[in-house]
Amino acid sequence: MEWPVIKPKHKLQFNFLKGNDLITVPNFFTSFESKEFVKVAESLGFVHQGSLGPTKGEAYRDNDRISVNDPDLADMIWESGLNKLFQDIKIRGKVAVGLNPNIRFYRYKVGQRFGRHIDESNDLGDGKHTHYTLLIYLSGSPQSKGKNVKSLGDTDPLVGGETVFYGSRNSVVAEVAPAEGMALVHIHGSKCMLHEARNVTKGVKYVFRSDVVFA
Question: Is the pLDDT of residue 7 over 80?
């Protein structure tokens, strides 16, 4: 698979929405990088992913998914700037060492969503555990143009698909609208906030997903 080459980003902006628990990074991928990932993902072919639903103890889920194991891709993205975000973040004395090589791509078409849920921490062996979820939106509002401006060849703009985080008594902590190339990082495991991916009402939402590994 020929992934786009992600060049190091030297002027990243880190927005701390809830301390170190919820962070956004605008323009982490360029528009070109985002679109190239979408092309490769589409060429691999998505598989529908659902669930039995809340009545069976599972969060409602309706989206399409691809999973690949690629340590080199994980390292390239980590070294392009995410490592700087985590250089001062420790969890129980452990430090971030990279991304989970299990890379997932999600696709949400009109009407698809992911209900309220939490993300579990994963034990990767050798003392390594995941403690943060990494989402990178590959579609959404353009980063360098007005939200309603389209360039030749653009598909319908994405409407809906916000990632919403909840606190106590179902209060909304943050509502993050997809923006092409923006990374969203949030703590998971025992401290994970309840969150959901809202219904897409127009366009297609593409997401790159991995996890931050600590050791």
Answer: yes
Cα separation, 157 vs 203, whole angstroms? 6
Phi/psi region, residue 81 (left: phi>0; alpha: psi -120 to 50; beta: rest), is left
The β-bridge relationship of strands 200-202 and 123-125 is unpaired
- Helical H segments across the chain, by residue range: 31-44, 71-77, 83-85
| Residues 163, 176: Cα–Cα separation, whole Å | 5
Structure tokens at 132: 């943060």
Distance CA 52, CA 58 (A): 6
Tens digits of per-residue pLDDT, 121-158?
A: 999 999 999 999 999 999 998 764 433 333 334 456 89
Distance separating alpha carbons of residues 78 and 84, to the nearest angstrom? 9
85 in Cβ contact with 134 (< 8 Å): no
The CA-based diameter of the chain, rounded to the nearest angstrom, is 50
